[in-house]
Design the sequence.
């Protein structure tokens, strides 16, 4: 868990921007989830510029808003999807392409990165033949029976040390069994086109990536030694960290490391792909909510706001992250306060240690860097409507 008391010193919105947020909240109502499409384009461009030899598949799970997908599609992104619903969100953008072009696009630009897929989904996907990941023999049997025309990527288990969201206990084949699994697939008449891994989301320990790359390189060498065959694709997954605070090293440093290691460990003709989610959307969204209640309990001021842990702040639970709640009011004098969400559940506690000026009912508060794994996992618990989404800096049509 990120320390809720930490000071956030990066990506703070400037005064001008703050004024705009305030106006938008006044105009559109709260809770308001503001998505800045220019920032999404900037993040995508930064990723692809820093890692010029890596094809970026946006991980739709981070934020599946169709407008975000459209912006990234227009920017030239590929997509990582986990379910048929996510697949269809991407498909919406290509549905009018001529058939051959559409099928080629799917093959070259969609990866189904959930290693466990229901049979019904495999049956639906088979006609498209996208890349599918797998990490066990039972899944291979399902794929052979229900989606034999897909290209396969074997996901291996790699260290997730220090990452915000740990994935290695649920996914990934034991690296020592990788070549056996690939061979098993070939015996079944399936094609394994490459290897993938995920170092855990918000990976701040870059050593995880280095170890994972070395593991993949070792497997590819062992596979070549045993079969004389090469693999075409290396999928370096997600995990690219967002600078929620200054302790997080920039993508620049990671990219330098990556570019060196990729050159050192892999043949130049291997296709390297990645599945960034958080990095693309986290700092492109701000949430503005309103104080709807105020009480003093045991001497401490408690604010109740109109979005909470069952809504856009769901990342507090599912993403293991603590979001600072900030005031628009300029005041030297602040008090240690608690902030709660709007539901009847005491679990709906956003923080017990926000430094806030004296707020009144009706005042707005905001949270930055809340674009990833936030609205994506919001619920409708207690009849609370999800925050209204407002798209800004989008040139396809006017705002809202
Ligand atoms: C298979 C897979 N790929 C990509 C991602 C995106 O990761 P991130 O948002 O850390 O970039 C995830 C996130 O859980 C994932 O499970």
Sequence:
């Amino acid at each position: 868990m990120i320390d809720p008391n930490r000071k956030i010193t990066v990506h703070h919105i400037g005064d001008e921007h703050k004024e705009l947020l305030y106006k938008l909240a006044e105009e559109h109502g709260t809770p308001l989830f503001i998505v800045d499409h220019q920032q999404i384009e900037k993040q995508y461009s930064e990723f692809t510029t820093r890692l010029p030899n890596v094809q970026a598949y946006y991980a739709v799970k981070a934020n599946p808003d169709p407008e975000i997908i459209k912006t990234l599609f227009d920017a030239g992104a590929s997509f990582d999807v986990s379910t048929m619903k996510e697949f269809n969100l991407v498909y919406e953008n290509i549905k009018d392409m001529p058939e051959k072009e559409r099928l080629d696009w799917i093959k070259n630009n969609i990866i189904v990165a959930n290693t466990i897929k229901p049979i019904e989904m495999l049956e639906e996907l088979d006609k498209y033949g996208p890349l599918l990941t797998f990490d066990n023999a039972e899944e291979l049997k399902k794929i052979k029976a229900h989606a034999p025309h897909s290209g396969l990527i074997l996901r291996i288990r790699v260290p997730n040390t220090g990452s915000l969201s740990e994935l290695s206990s649920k996914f990934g084949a034991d690296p020592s069994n990788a070549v056996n699994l690939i061979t098993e697939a070939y015996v079944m008449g399936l094609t394994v086109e490459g290897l993938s891994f995920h170092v855990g989301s918000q990976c701040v320990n870059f050593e995880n990536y280095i170890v994972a790359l070395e593991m993949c390189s070792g497997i590819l060498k062992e596979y070549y030694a045993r079969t004389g065959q090469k693999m075409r694709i290396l999928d370096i997954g997600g995990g690219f960290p967002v600078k929620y605070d200054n302790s997080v090293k920039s993508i620049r440093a990671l990219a330098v490391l990556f570019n060196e290691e990729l050159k050192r460990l892999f043949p130049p003709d291997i296709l390297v792909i990645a599945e960034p989610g958080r990095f693309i959307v986290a700092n492109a969204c701000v949430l503005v909510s309103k104080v709807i209640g105020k009480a003093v309990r045991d001497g401490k001021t408690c604010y109740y706001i109109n979005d909470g842990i069952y809504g856009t702040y769901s990342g507090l639970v599912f993403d293991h992250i603590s979001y600072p709640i900030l005031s628009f009011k300029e005041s030297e004098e602040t008090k240690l306060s608690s902030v709660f969400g709007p539901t009847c559940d005491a679990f709906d506690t956003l923080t017990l240690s926000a430094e806030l000026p004296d707020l009144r009912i009706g005042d707005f508060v905001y949270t930055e860097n809340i674009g990833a794994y936030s609205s994506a996992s919001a619920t409708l618990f207690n009849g609370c409507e999800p925050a209204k989404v407002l798209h800004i800096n989008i040139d396809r049509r006017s705002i809202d």
